[in-house]
Structures are given as C-alpha cells and as structure tokens.
Backbone:
C-alpha cells in the first residue's frame, strides 16, 4: 500500500465533492477554491461538515489561507472551529482520511506533485475525531 501521497488543492476538492457521509477538515487556513467547494456541498443540503482552522491574521499573512474564504464559510453557516494553537492538519471524508502537511502559498513551487499526505488507518481517524470533537454527554449514551 502506498500510504504517502500527493494531495493538491484540486484533489482535495474532488475528495470533498465525493463525500456521502462526512467531511472533517483541519488546516491552518483555507483558500477560495476550497471554500467554494465546501460552501457548495453545504448549500446542497450536505450538513455533516466540520472545518477546523486557525483564523488568525498571522496565518493569513504567512500564506496559509485567505480571510475572505473564512468569512464566506461563516456567512454560509458552515461549522468553522477556530483553533489558534493547532498545527495538526488532516482531512477525513467518509471512511478515508489523510494527515496533511500543507505548504505556505508564499513558498509553493509550480510542482504540485509534492508528497504531502499520509493515509490514516481507521483507528487513527476515530482517535483524531475524538480528540477534536469529543462526544457530548448525549452521544455517549
């Protein structure tokens, strides 16, 4: 199994579009092209989407996202969780998950075949979901 992969922005978008159960995305920031796909999916009635971002000016200035993209997600009522001290990036779509290693767009080269994702096993997916979104008392019953 080739568990180290290249996952560029377009491939991430295709993965999100393919979701039928859930989308959980944690990144330092988010760009317009990803926001548009997420907003479209959410507006179509697919509501099991959770986005974890570092919504700070510093992250935006460092080239990890666009403030307008964050604002548009919030305007569309997409669940955005601000985690200012988080450096863990991942995407989980349905039963497929990847740890991500995003690169600042300031330093991004033209090559989009950079190995930047490690496939998660099912146990790791459930563990990371539990860490970021612990079950409520009602869910524990």
Residues:
């Amino acid at each position: 199994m080739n568990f180290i992969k290249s996952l560029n922005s377009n491939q991430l978008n295709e993965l999100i579009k393919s979701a039928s159960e859930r989308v959980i995305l944690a990144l330092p920031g988010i760009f317009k092209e990803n926001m548009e796909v997420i907003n479209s999916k959410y507006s179509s009635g697919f509501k099991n989407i959770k986005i974890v971002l570092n919504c700070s000016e510093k992250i935006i200035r460092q080239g990890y996202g666009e403030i307008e993209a964050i604002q548009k997600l919030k305007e569309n009522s997409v669940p955005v969780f601000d985690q200012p001290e988080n450096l863990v990036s991942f995407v989980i779509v349905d039963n497929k998950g990847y740890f991500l290693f995003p690169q600042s767009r300031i330093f991004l080269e033209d090559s989009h075949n950079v190995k930047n994702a490690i496939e998660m096993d099912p146990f790791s997916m459930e563990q990371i979901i539990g860490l970021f979104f612990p079950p409520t008392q009602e869910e524990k019953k």
